[in-house]
Inverse folding.
């Protein structure tokens, strides 16, 4: 039987090129061969700590080559990798440890004291610091390397990603070796990775974008990865002439555009800029093309399914859309009752395919409620599809505003506000209202120059949007609250402005 372990697939793609450079990082270079050996040694350390196939390994560490090798080591032994955002507090980490019940926790030595109270008894703790040292690496030096790759089926778990979860408990999306492998192969193919490609990596590696999408594509291609610690616009600008592909969140592209040295010449060697994780403003897309001559390729995905749609590599890349379903992936737009809607109608996006996760960790009821009877997963994203199957994301279903019984899609209102002179961006939310149930409230970020007043915005919208869609209130902010992946945190805005219309 073929071994469906994802690491088996990755290794088969770089085994002919063990001398190729893999991670080009602040402390030096790591070849594919060295990464393979390093992961075998770390796998030995994890085994010595008791981790077996199916055991969870929770990892909260800085972005280092050793952290990447720890991920590969988990794949190699069939353990379930659970990366955590480095910004999570001890209380948050405590929740994940209780929920996932890992065999091993890998954390920064400086976090050990802070986490002491929340680490369940019986959890082995290994340390890895931001320069790639710690008890994990010491154990890796002495442990017997695990050179074989644990036999797995496509359905065996490879990772659990905890969703950012803006409401209620954070859910662990269970991803199988088959989910990750199918998605990696599809992306490598449709984005036309070619010999000589060099990936510029400035994303965190605790999320689907930086960990799976970026690293898997590079590894399937035995490509060099310029591995930057975090996002620094200057460092990206300096490295662009050596790279051919960059993946980023929308904020990365706006920051690049603000950088004085960013130009067409800096990007001359680049063949592909990919954006995702949050909506890319059409204005950013247009400015990027003006400055560089390149059209950003926007794609859409989520923790539960990896990548779902992508603008075409060869065909037109259209701002404000996320393109077509990936090969093998099915997408449809349906109403709340599950009735499939026609082209041009807004509803919730539902998906099926080998990329769709195996369910939420230890939440069978939650899992069941998010799948239709025919097995399609309800993404919770509001979308509209054109007759050709091109998808546009309109917002999260939970961000939908229902005012006086009418549906208001925030994106529609935001697009009108963003188009006004002097507006940089906006976020439209629904807040409790005594008459309407919910009222539309717009949070507007002015551009550096002259900002329009609330009165000017109100009158500009009057002719453009139906009455019920117009904001009942407009407030100004210097910036919108965003998480590390660039997503606007509307839940925070809803909390802040919850009392805007209450009868007091
Ligand atoms: P996460 O699970 O943290 O990766 O978040 C996934 C969510 O990010 C999706 O359900 C969408 O709401 C949003 N998202 C990702 N990519 C895009 C995109 N290109 N445009 C709009 N929203 C996006």
């Amino acid at each position: 039987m073929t071994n469906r372990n994802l690491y088996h697939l990755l290794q088969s793609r770089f085994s002919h090129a063990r001398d190729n450079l893999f991670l080009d990082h602040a402390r030096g270079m790591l070849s594919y061969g060295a990464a393979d050996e390093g992961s075998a040694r770390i796998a030995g350390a994890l085994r010595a700590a008791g981790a077996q196939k199916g055991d969870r390994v929770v990892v909260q560490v800085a972005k280092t080559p050793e952290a990447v090798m720890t991920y590969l080591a988990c794949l190699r032994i069939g353990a379930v990798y659970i990366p955590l955002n480095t910004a999570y507090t001890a209380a948050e980490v405590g929740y994940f440890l209780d929920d996932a019940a890992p065999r091993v926790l890998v954390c920064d030595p400086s976090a050990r004291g802070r986490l002491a109270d929340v680490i369940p008894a019986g959890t082995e703790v290994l340390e890895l610091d931001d320069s790639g040292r710690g008890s994990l690496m010491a154990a890796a030096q002495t442990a017997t390397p695990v050179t074989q790759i644990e036999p797995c089926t496509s359905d065996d778990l490879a990772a659990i990603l905890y969703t950012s979860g803006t409401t209620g408990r954070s859910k662990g999306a269970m991803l199988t070796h088959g989910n990750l492998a199918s998605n990696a192969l599809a992306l490598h193919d449709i984005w036309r990775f070619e010999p000589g490609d060099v990936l510029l990596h400035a994303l965190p590696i605790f999320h689907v974008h930086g960990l799976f999408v970026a690293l898997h594509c590079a590894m399937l291609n035995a490509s060099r990865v310029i591995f930057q610690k975090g996002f620094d616009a200057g460092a990206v600008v300096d490295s662009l002439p050596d790279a051919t592909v960059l993946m980023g969140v929308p904020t990365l592209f706006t920051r690049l555009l603000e950088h004085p040295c960013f130009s067409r010449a800096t990007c001359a060697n680049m063949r592909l800029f990919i954006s995702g994780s949050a909506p890319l403003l059409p204005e950013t897309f247009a400015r990027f093309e003006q400055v560089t001559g390149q059209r950003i390729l926007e794609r859409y995905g989520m923790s539960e399914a990896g990548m779902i749609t992508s603008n075409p590599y060869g065909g037109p890349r259209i701002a404000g859309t996320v393109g077509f379903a990936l090969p093998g992936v099915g997408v449809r737009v349906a109403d709340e009752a599950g009735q499939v809607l026609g082209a041009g109608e807004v509803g919730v996006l539902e998906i099926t395919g080998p990329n769709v996760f195996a369910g939420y960790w230890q939440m069978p009821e939650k899992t069941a409620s998010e799948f239709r009877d025919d097995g399609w997963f309800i993404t919770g994203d509001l979308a509209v599809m054109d007759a050709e199957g091109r998808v546009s994301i309109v917002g999260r279903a939970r961000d939908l505003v229902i005012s006086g019984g009418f549906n208001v899609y925030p994106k529609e209102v935001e697009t009108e506000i963003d188009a006004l002179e002097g507006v940089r961006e906006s976020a439209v939310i629904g807040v409790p209202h005594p008459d309407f149930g919910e009222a539309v409230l717009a949070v507007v970020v002015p551009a550096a120059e002259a900002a329009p007043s609330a009165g000017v915005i109100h009158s500009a919208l009057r002719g453009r949007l139906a009455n019920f869609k117009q904001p009942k209130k407009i407030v100004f902010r210097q910036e919108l609250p965003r998480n590390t992946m660039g997503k606007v945190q509307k839940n925070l805005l809803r909390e802040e402005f919850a009392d805007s219309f209450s009868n007091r």
Notes: Residues 32-48 form the longest helix (17 residues).
